[in-house]
Design brief:
The protein has 223 residues and is α+β, with helices and mostly antiparallel strands. The protein folds into two domains: 4-96, no CATH class; 158-222, no CATH class. It is built from three helices and 16 strands. The chain has a six-stranded antiparallel sheet with strand order 1-5-6-7-8-4, with no helix packed on it. A six-stranded antiparallel sheet has the order 9-13-12-11-10-14, with no helix packed on it. The longest helix is centred in the first third of the chain and has 21 residues, at 10-30.
């Protein structure tokens, strides 16, 4: 069963803000120096951002949290940090795998695995899911070839050798796109090309070759 997402309402936010006003200021001023709430530097993948230690307690959740129900539990998500209610306080916890959120943390690092984007922050990996219109918390990618550099673009440079009109060019490109997608199963207009992450690199290459063959057959020079 998919997790449910709520936006914390005005009254709840006001109560939370009142409860955490002092705590939040103290954390900002002293957290990195062993103060009331200790913080750690997340340097993985060159992320280089500070987050509060998991296992710590706060009296309230800062910011405007998103409330997420997942696996029978309720979580509060704010600023890339996940909280679980424990009596009158909130425990800082790991993100629950399978949970969905509408937005990424304010600071995140984009990772590329086989041409598929992952988003990383605070020891947590997210991927975009079109069907859910949100970002899912997932396990770390198993593929060791993780890169922060984006893969090559799918854009092709096309020259009309026969003087085709703009309308003809648009029609030819669309028809070739449909044909190339049907032949390869890869659609660059979909997230990840609509194929499993481990197939993206191979299928992207097949799609580009199919597009080139189709367009060249219609009288275009393709680079």
């Amino acid at each position: 069963m998919k997790g449910r997402i709520y936006a914390a309402g005005g009254a709840a936010i006001a109560a939370l803000a009142l409860a955490v006003a002092v705590t939040t200021v103290q954390a900002d001023e002293h957290g990195r120096h062993g103060g009331a709430r200790s913080e750690r530097l997340d340097a993985r993948h060159g992320h280089n951002h500070y987050y509060p230690d998991r296992g710590g307690f706060v009296h309230g959740v800062p910011g405007r949290p998103v409330i997420v129900e997942q696996g029978g539990g309720r979580y509060f998500y704010s600023g890339g940090v996940w909280y679980a209610p424990r009596g009158p306080s909130f425990l800082i916890v790991a993100a629950p795998i399978g949970a969905f959120v509408p937005v990424l943390p304010p600071f995140y690092t984009t990772l590329w695995v086989g041409g598929f984007p992952y988003y990383y922050a605070n020891d947590t990996y997210y991927v975009w899911r079109d069907a859910e219109n949100g970002y899912e918390v997932v396990d770390p990618p198993a593929d060791p070839s993780v890169s922060t550099q984006a893969p090559p673009s799918d854009e092709l440079f096309i020259y009309p050798q026969r003087g085709q009109s703009a309308d003809s060019q648009a029609s030819d490109k669309y028809e070739c796109h449909r044909w190339a997608s049907s032949q390869t199963g890869f659609d660059p207009t979909q997230s990840g090309g609509g194929v499993p992450p481990e197939q993206i690199q191979q299928k992207r290459g097949e799609y580009q070759r199919a597009m080139r063959a189709c367009l060249e057959g219609r009288g275009y020079s393709v680079r």
